[in-house]
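Researcher: Here's a chain I'd like modeled. Treat it as a single chain, no partners, no ligands.
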Amino acid sequence: MKPPPAPKRRHAEQRGRAGEEEAALHLRRHGWAILATRVRTPAGEVDLVARRDTIVAFVEVKTRASAAELDYAIDARRLARVAAAAEILIPRFTGPDDDIRIDVILIAPGVPPRHIENAWCG
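Model: Modeled as a single isolated chain. Structure tokens:
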């Protein structure tokens, strides 16, 4: 049996979940339907899968304690992992006429969510 996570880790996970909820709300406000949350694959996890018209976005959400930290929240390695997971999920969530992209939403207190469309062009 695994021991419970340390309080610091537990707090980070709670903050991350709250950020994912805020990101989903942001997407809904902009006409997106949330198809799935926290989808796990052998390649990694996709935080949100969203659809608007014929666009399906596999969304990575990063939550930080301050807006200043957002500039360093995402990197090519993390995006590559999301892209690999999305590749596995494409048959499950998309049809033949859909456009697919990887987006990032950055969340911090006191600032609006920052939505980066087509963050991965690999």
